[in-house]
Write a structure and sequence with these properties.
- By secondary structure, the protein is mainly β.
- The protein is about 10% helix and about 35% strand.
- A six-stranded antiparallel β-barrel has the order 16-17-20-19-18-21.
- A hairpin with a 2-residue loop joins strand 2 and strand 3 (about 70-75).
- The longest helix has 23 residues, at about 30-50.
- The protein starts with about 30 loop residues before the first helix and ends with a strand.
- The relative contact order is 0.11.
């Protein structure tokens, strides 16, 4: 998920080393979030420069050690640094006291099927029972957590969330069909399929503001005037369906996809009972909006959520009706429609809407048309113009 931020100002090329508060000034989220960005980059760069890109410290020599014990694959308790990020396996009971960090920790390795950040690993990536050899690798990345993923972030004294959290998560995964000649000393480029896993995305995106002619009467805003508000707009563009240009799709939000709420029940496959339909007339879910329904299982399986368009919103019952039903079994319930609270099922609003045209004014898709797809196809080297945000163009490369 994503938090409600005004803007993101951190730029490593500026070489800032800190953020200094001035007296009598307005406090902004952007300043202190930039400070976090500065510190985070410094820590990652410093850690990588000093100890390398992948290191297990001597304090926890069995950190993420992979073993087969009793017919089960296990992951050793301890720490590892990956590209400057600290990943930690806290281990299973019995517990012991860590005198250095003054906290309790587990003493046993955890089974592969009990990974804390891969709750559906047995269904998505089960331990193989034949074939091999397999390459076992560790995937580590930072994840943003809001109160929808962790309800404890709600401040009980005031009943609302305050800040979000950045969380380092990890998964142990396997790569099959690597060949019998591959060993731990084999160079990365010689391992079949490994380059596809570690290769960074080569997708790039550019934006441009389209000029709007001024009117003689300053009190009249023309239909083509576009957005003229004073508040910040932090746009988020995200790939929905992966793939090459022409097959991949993207979605976007003008509020960093922060308009979101939890789903407590699915009384019917085309109805969602939510915790809140919105804060006000703007920051809410409305008829015609595209929403993404997801949960922790889909997120940690690295799969997109299900996109649906809203048909109706009932403020009294907090029920959102969808234009098309969800598949059965994706979000299992207890028989009365109530969902598993540990999976943190939630919806978030995306803002793509209206007509999308190319550089020649050719209509590519009308997102408001009945039966249209939820996202926009990624095209190579094309400026795209959105009718519902007429002052902005996107180019995909």
């Amino acid at each position: 998920m994503s938090g409600d931020y005004s803007r993101k100002t951190f730029d490593p090329k500026r070489d800032f080393s800190g953020v200094l508060m001035q007296q009598g000034r307005v406090q902004l989220d952007a300043d202190w979030n930039e400070m976090i960005g500065i510190i985070s980059r410094r820590l990652r760069a410093e850690t990588t420069d000093i100890i390398g890109r992948g290191t297990v410290p001597k304090e926890t020599p069995d950190g993420f050690k992979i073993e087969v014990a009793g017919g089960k694959l296990t992951i050793g308790r301890g720490r590892i640094y990956v590209d400057g990020l600290l990943a930690e396996n806290h281990g299973n009971a019995p517990l012991e006291f860590d005198p250095v960090l003054a906290e309790q920790r587990g003493t046993l390795a955890i089974p592969y099927n009990e990974q804390p950040y891969f709750p559906n690993v047995a269904a998505v990536a089960p331990v193989p029972t034949e074939g091999g050899p397999y390459l076992v690798y560790l995937d580590v990345w930072p994840r943003e957590v809001t109160y929808l993923e962790n309800p404890d972030l709600l401040e009980k004294a005031v009943g609302v969330d305050t800040a979000t959290r950045s969380q380092t998560v990890w998964q142990v995964r396997m790569l099959a069909n690597i060949g019998k000649d591959v060993s731990c000393d084999t160079p990365d480029e010689k391992i079949p399929g490994w380059a596809d896993i570690i290769r960074p995305s080569d997708g790039r995106l550019s934006t441009d503001a389209v000029g709007v002619a001024s009117e003689d009467d300053p009190c009249v805003i023309p239909p083509s005037g576009g957005y003229r508000g004073l508040e910040n707009r932090l746009y988020r563009v995200e790939i929905h369906d992966g793939g090459v240009a022409g097959k991949a799709t993207f979605k976007w939000s003008r509020d960093n996809v922060s308009i979101a709420t939890s789903v407590t029940a699915i009384p019917a496959l085309d109805k969602l009972t939510v915790a809140r339909v919105g804060r006000d007339a703007t920051l809410r879910f409305k008829v015609g909006d595209w929403i993404e329904i997801t949960d922790d299982w889909l997120e940690f399986a690295q799969q997109p959520g299900l996109m649906r368009q809203i048909k109706d919103v009932d403020d009294a019952t907090q029920i959102i009706t969808l234009t098309s039903a969800l598949p059965a079994g994706i979000f299992p319930d207890d028989g009365q429609g109530n969902l598993d609270p540990l999976r943190h099922t939630r919806i978030k609003r995306w803002d793509q809407a209206g007509k999308v045209t190319d550089t020649n004014g050719k209509l590519l898709v009308d997102l408001d048309a009945t039966g249209s797809y939820c996202a926009v196809t990624v095209l190579a080297l094309q400026w795209l113009t959105f009718s519902k945000i007429s002052s902005t163009r996107l180019v995909q490369t």
